[in-house]
Design goal:
It is built from 3 helices and 10 strands. It is an alpha+beta fold. It has 2 domains: about 35 residues; about 130 residues, Cupredoxins -  blue copper proteins (Immunoglobulin-like, Sandwich), CATH 2.60.40.420. Strands 3-2-1-5-8 form a 5-stranded mixed beta sheet, with no helix packed on it. The protein has a 3-stranded mixed beta sheet with strand order 4-10-9, covered by helices on one side. The radius of gyration is 26 Å and the shape is elongated.
C-alpha cells in the first residue's frame, strides 16, 4: 500500500469517528445550552396540627392561615357554604383554604407537629408525608384556577382545600410584588 493510501484511510477514519461522535455529543450540548426554567417564586410551609393545617407563606407581612374542617357531618354542614359560596361538603371542605396563584412556580414544604399524616391533593399529583421533625419538599405550579380538595385517606378528619386564583388577585390580597414575569406553559 502506498503512503498516500494510508493518509486517505486515516482521514476517512477520523471523519467517521467525528461524524458518529457528533451525533452522540450534540444532544448533550443542546440540553446544556437550554435556558433554565423559572425557579420558584416563593415557599409555602404546611404544618399539620391534629385535624388542622397551618399554612405559612414566605411573603413578608402575610398572616398565617389555619385551616380546619368546615363541619364534621352532613347534618352540621346544612346551610353552610364553602370559600367559593357553594354548599359545604362534609367530607371535603375546610373553613380557610390555602390560597395559591395560578401559573406560578412555588415550593411546598410539609411537616407535622404531633402526628403522621399526608398532604395529598390528587388533582396536583402531590402526596407528601407530614412527619414530626422532618420537612418534606416539592416544587410545582398549578395551571388552572379553581377550588381543589384533598385529604389523608387514613385520617378522615384532616381535610385540605386549595383555592387557586389569578396572580393579580393574589398580589392584591397579600400585597405581593412578583419577582418574575408570568411564564407560559
Amino acid at each position: 500500500m502506498r503512503k498516500g493510501g494510508i493518509a486517505v484511510w486515516l482521514a476517512l477514519g477520523v471523519f467517521a469517528v467525528a461524524t458518529v461522535g457528533w451525533f452522540f455529543v450534540w444532544p448533550v450540548i443542546a440540553v446544556l445550552i437550554q435556558p433554565l426554567p423559572p425557579g420558584p417564586e416563593f415557599t409555602v410551609t404546611a404544618i399539620a396540627e391534629g385535624s388542622a393545617w397551618r399554612y405559612r407563606y414566605e411573603i413578608r407581612n402575610t398572616p398565617e392561615i389555619v385551616s380546619r374542617p368546615l363541619c364534621g357531618t352532613a347534618r352540621e354542614c346544612r346551610g353552610k357554604t364553602n370559600s367559593v359560596g357553594k354548599p359545604a361538603d362534609a367530607a371535603l371542605d375546610a373553613d380557610k383554604p390555602l390560597i395559591l396563584p395560578v401559573n406560578t412556580p412555588l415550593v411546598l414544604q410539609v411537616t407535622s407537629k404531633d402526628l403522621l399524616t399526608v398532604w395529598k391533593v390528587p388533582a396536583f399529583g402531590i402526596a407528601l408525608d407530614a412527619i414530626p421533625g422532618r420537612i418534606t419538599t416539592t416544587e410545582f405550579a398549578v395551571l388552572k384556577p379553581g377550588l381543589y380538595y384533598g385529604r389523608n385517606p387514613k385520617d378522615r378528619t384532616a381535610r385540605i382545600a386549595v383555592l387557586v386564583i389569578s396572580r393579580s388577585a393574589f398580589a392584591k390580597r397579600f400585597g405581593y410584588k412578583w419577582r418574575q414575569k408570568e411564564f407560559e406553559q
